[in-house]
Amino acid sequence: MGFFDKVKIGLEKTRRQMGGIISEFTGENEVYYDEIEDMLIVADAGTKTAYRAVTNLRDNVRDKNLRGEKEVKAELVNLLTDFLSVGDFELNIGTKPSVILVVGVNGVGKTTTIGKLATKLVSEGKKVLLAAGDTFRAAAADQLSVWAERSGASIVKHNEGSDPAAVVFDALHAACARNCDVVIIDTAGRLHNKQNLMNELSKIRRIISRELPESDVETLMVIDATTGQNGLIQSKLFAETAEISGLVLTKLDGTAKGGIVFAIAEELKLPVKFIGVGEQVDDLMPFEPRAFSEALIS
Hints:
Blueprint: H1 3-10, H2 12-22, H3 30-42, H4 47-63, H5 68-84, E1 98-103, H6 110-123, E2 128-132, H7 140-151, E3 154-156, H8 164-177, E4 182-186, H9 195-211, E5 217-224, H10 229-242, E6 246-250, H11 260-268, E7 272-276, E8 284-286, H12 289-297
Parallel strand pairs: 1-4, 1-5, 2-3, 2-4, 5-6, 6-7
Antiparallel strand pairs: 7-8
Helix pairs in contact: 1-12, 2-3, 3-4, 4-5, 5-12, 6-7, 8-9, 10-11
């Protein structure tokens, strides 16, 4: 099953709401545009994005003399796709080794995302090492060990309560010694109001820069789509410390909040690099802006 089909299923609730309104197009009708704007806001696209999308849609329908549901849908897909085109959607991991630092608060699916990403990279022929940098949460390293075994990756871990920066230091050197392609670093579920934890994240970044100054580094923030605008607030605060290069949006299946990807692109100008649309290993999928927009209003 391809990206479009999986996203279409995952966004079923959002899609039903959007599609029903768009199919009612009958021409110049302010109530119609107001309803589209309302539904984008309900889907967590954000007020600024919703207003801009509907304003542009109204103008383009008039200026291009668009008629009928099909033409209006195509125009809205184009607009939404443009909103999402804010950066590089591909992982930048061209060096050997490259580093992927994964951050996010507790409960967003960070460890699962790391496991799925490791599985994907190993299946592509890459030698992957996991670093169990979340030493604060009980059994975090054990959970990551399970994913390492499933995916075929190796792992570096210390005892619970150890210095996360020491784990990262050892993992980076192990990756070089073992000729690994990618190091994926787990981190504690940092809460944005825990300054000591944010400082720890900065420390990890400094160690990566010092030990592997020439390596490509991706910092991915994992966001739970069901948290809506709260996830956006978290992203803003993490971005101040973590130098985030991209986002992973999890738990899109079964939520009516799929529009949060547009709010994130509008506010942070950061690309969504992966989305999670289910529980299976292959349900973590590289993000495709146009296919996502089409699935949302199909």
